[in-house]
Structure to design on (223 residues):
């Protein structure tokens, strides 16, 4: 069964304390992996797309990486405004194209 | 470029009542998705349209949920009759082909 698992469920960091969020997946026919940020009361906002193992993408304090079994979202020197839920989703194809979301990591950055 | 629009933003109904949600995707996006997001969980795909045809509705509870996308643009999602466990945020998203999805603000449904 296709599955996406994110860890940890919740993470509290001090401002400036770097860390990584994990997204592991077991799917057939991976076509892409997406990271989204979701603020309370809003819809998810797109951050990155990764297509193949070894690929990396960066945006400000965020860097996403991909291996054959998992993806990491590295947060360098986070600020309080980075506090949000981070979701990963995989696009896989077994017949039709299908997106599967993980349950997210709730990040809280303390000033 | 205007984003994905959804209405209403909030809805409170009694169980066994019916409710409808509306979504207007980004212009030119052929693919439209409806997701259900229960508090503390990731979005769960309910139905996916490609233009005005259904691509995937395998997780749509068809005894109570229905959706349509007329003319390949706007879409409506209906629940009839609603149950307590339908309380959730209903998200609409659109994309070009199978690229990143753009989400609307969602409709928060409370079933009492």
């Amino acid at each position: 069964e296709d599955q996406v698992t994110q860890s940890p469920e919740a993470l509290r960091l001090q401002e400036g304390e770097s860390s990584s969020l994990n997204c592991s997946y077991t799917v057939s026919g991976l076509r892409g992996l997406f990271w989204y940020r979701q603020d309370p009361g809003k819809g998810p906002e797109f951050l990155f797309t990764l297509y193949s193992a070894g690929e990396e993408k960066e945006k400000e304090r965020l860097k996403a990486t991909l291996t054959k079994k998992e993806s990491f979202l590295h947060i360098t020197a986070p600020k309080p405004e980075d506090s949000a839920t981070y979701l990963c989703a995989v696009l896989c194809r077994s017949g039709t194209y299908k997106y599967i979301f993980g349950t997210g990591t709730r990040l809280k950055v303390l000033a | 470029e205007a984003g994905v629009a959804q209405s209403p933003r909030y809805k409170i109904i009694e169980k066994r009542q019916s409710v409808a949600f509306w979504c207007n995707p980004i212009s030119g996006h052929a693919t439209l998705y409806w997701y259900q997001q229960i508090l503390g969980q990731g979005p769960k795909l309910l139905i996916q349209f490609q233009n005005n045809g259904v691509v995937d509705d395998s997780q749509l509870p068809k005894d109570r949920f229905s959706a349509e996308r007329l003319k390949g643009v706007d879409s409506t999602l209906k629940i009839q009759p609603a149950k307590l466990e339908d309380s959730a945020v209903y998200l609409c998203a659109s994309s070009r082909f199978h690229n990143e999805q753009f989400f609307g603000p969602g409709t928060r449904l409370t079933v009492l």
The mean pLDDT of chain B is 94.
